[in-house]
Amino acid sequence: MTFEQQRRRLSGVVAIPVTPFDAEGAVDGPTYAKLVDRLVTSGIEVVTPNGNTGEFYALDADEARQCLEVTVEAVAGRASVLAGIGHDVASATRAAAHARDAGADMVMIHQPVHPYISGDGWVDYHASIAAAVPELGVVLYVRNPAIGGEQLHALGVAAPNVIGVKYAVPDPVRFGSVARDTGFERFVWIAGLAELSAPGYFAVGATGFTSGLVNVDPSISLDMFRSLSTGDYPAAMAVWERIRPFEELRAANGNANNVSVVKDALAQLGLCRPDVRPPSRLLTAAERERLFGLLSSWGLS
């Protein structure tokens, strides 16, 4: 697949699947494959194993490789696989090489987790990883508001295979400015804070958005994307109002329930267990009851 084809697919709903666990707490490969197949069958064109909704930071390296391999097999060429990678440069480079060899189309480099991040060091970190897999498209995950157009422009020059930016700073004005300071056409710009932020980010240039909600009901996310991509903001905001309580439940307590809500919803639909790993936690009985009401209002439970 060419970089141009990858860019087109990134201008859509970028699904972040959950990582289901079995009763012993291990990755449940067969269930994972069914969840991925459900996404692709519904029309999703980019699937991101080992994203934050997939509990990337709670998986060990072997589990992350397993999730990637299961995804590639389940997708079976029907969509693009965007493999989440990260940690130190050596670990990320190994994971990128594994993703390439396993059949992924692209990699997404998680935000560097380090207490001391310089602009130049940020560029070097991503350029080093991208250089190890020149045949793969690379997507950046930007959560740091200190990263601006200067750094993104420099990385775009240094790493031709960096094709997209998942921008997850909660500030659409900052996003619009950074995108234009970078050189707007250089990258595909993806709203990285999911459906509630998507209308604001699309208004200033995003052409795709990431989603965890898509695990629960792909049609809702696809409806919002179709509305945004055609400029029908009233229709997009109708979807926005419908899903706002669900997304606010995920965002409660500093996003503590981000993954738990999605997994519990899938459990209530009979699709996987609700288990999450620390530092996440299961929902309370009251939260589960509220979630049941939301799913019922969508006609799902």
Plain-language structure description:
With 301 residues, this protein is of the alpha/beta class. Helices cover 51% and strands 12% of the residues. It has twelve helices and eight strands. The chain has helices at residues 3-10, 29-41, 61-75, 89-102, 119-132, 149-158, 172-182, 194-203, 218-229, 233-255, 258-268, 285-297; strands at 13-15, 46-47, 80-85, 106-109, 137-142, 162-167, 188-191, 208-211. The protein has an eight-stranded parallel barrel with strand order 1-2-3-4-5-6-7-8, surrounded by seven helices. The termini are far apart. The model has no long low-confidence stretch (mean pLDDT 97).
Which key terms come to mind for this protein?
alpha/beta; 12 helices; 301 residues; single chain
Order of helices and strands: HEHEHEHEHEHEHEHEHHHH
Low-confidence stretches: none
Radius of gyration: 18 Å
- The largest beta-sheet arranges its strands as 1-2-3-4-5-6-7-8
Tertiary shape: globular
Largest sheet: 8 strands, parallel, barrel
Mean pLDDT reading: 97
